[in-house]
Amino acid sequence: MPDSTDHDGHAEPSGHGAAGAHEPPKMVEASLDSPQFQVAAANPERVERGIAVMFVLGVVGFAGFGAAFWQNWSNVWLGVTLAVGFFGLGIGMVAWGKYLMPRGPFSESRHTNEPTDEEREVFLQDLSSRGKIALGRRSYLLKILSVAGGIFGIVAIFPLLRSLGPLPGSLFYNTSWKKGSYLVSPEGRYVHIDDLDKGGVLTVFPENDVGGPLSQTILIRPETSGYVVTAPGRETWGPEGYLAFSKVCTHAGCPVALYQKALDELLCPCHQSIFEVGPGRPATPVFGPAPRPLPQLPLYVDSKGYLRAQNRYDEPVGPGFWERGNL
Ligand code: FES
Question: From the CB of 219, is ligand 1 less than 6 Å away?
Fold first, then answer.
């Protein structure tokens, strides 16, 4: 096996480790005849001349660039001369490094610093006894530090929770509609039984939340008299031909603003969900992405002929959310 050589050009026997863990390796003087100093070129003189030609080409290119710059020649000349300069210089340097530099390998020996088992044992004993003494003497400080760290960890959670915003409470379940609420128009006028003809439509709100986005309700009149029964259990919800449904689309919450009286359908313009309404048609979606029917508001007509809510919506309005049981 050949001797290895350090960065100072000294070669040393490769079997130095056998001499002992703590003994410095012996240095052996290197010479140009050492295998590490051999170059890759088969004919170094010839390669040397080629590299010299490349360097001269680089000199010419850079000199030309200087002249072109001085004489204010066109950009083409500037580019060409600069390219020639870098080309000559680059090729020459690469060739020099590849063909005329010693091939090595070069290595530098290292001493083995591994401690003996005995030294390791002494160190561990020393470390643990010092740690015990140093920390044991201030044990109460350790306890206080632990308490402080624990409290800080708990307190650090507060801003995180607060950033989630206020708790929604019953917001997802209830609107401002309640038992006895008057139906009022967007202008705040109470809706009377004579206000709509057959096929008529009107947006209504409870009187205490006119304009409320969750309370908005679409009032339609498919018939002019009698009860319109959309589903079993809703026999009294549609008096005098009136029906009321939440206007908040069950897909993404857009207002379900269009009523096609010829087909008895409500249409959401956002993504074209269509809901069938009328006798036996409880606003069931028959087209589009809406996943469930529009909630129906139960109505009654009071003694003065005004339309009022029998009760609040019996299910959440709007798009589905994670706690809704009927999705
Ligand atoms: S919001 Fe009504 S269909 Fe998408």
Answer: no
Q: Ligand 1 test: best mutation among 218, 247, 249, 275, most atoms within 8 Å of CB?
A: 249
Residue 241 belongs to a domain:
yes
Q: Is the CB of 291 under 6 A from ligand 1?
A: no
Predicted confidence (pLDDT) per residue in 98-115, tens digit: 888 887 777 777 777 788
- 224 C-alpha to center of ligand 1: Å? 29
Domain that holds residue 34: 4-100
pLDDT digits (tens, 9 = 90+) for 214-252: 999 999 999 989 999 999 999 999 999 999 999 999 999
Residue 106 belongs to a domain: no
Last residue of a domain, one of 58, 85, 100: 100
Residue 199: C-alpha distances to residues 219, 276, 324 (Å): 10, 14, 33
Asked, for residue 242, whether it belongs to a domain, the answer is: yes
Strand partners, 307: 301
Query: How far is residue 279 from each of residues 209, 222, 291, 298, measured CA to CA in Å?
Result: 29, 9, 21, 14
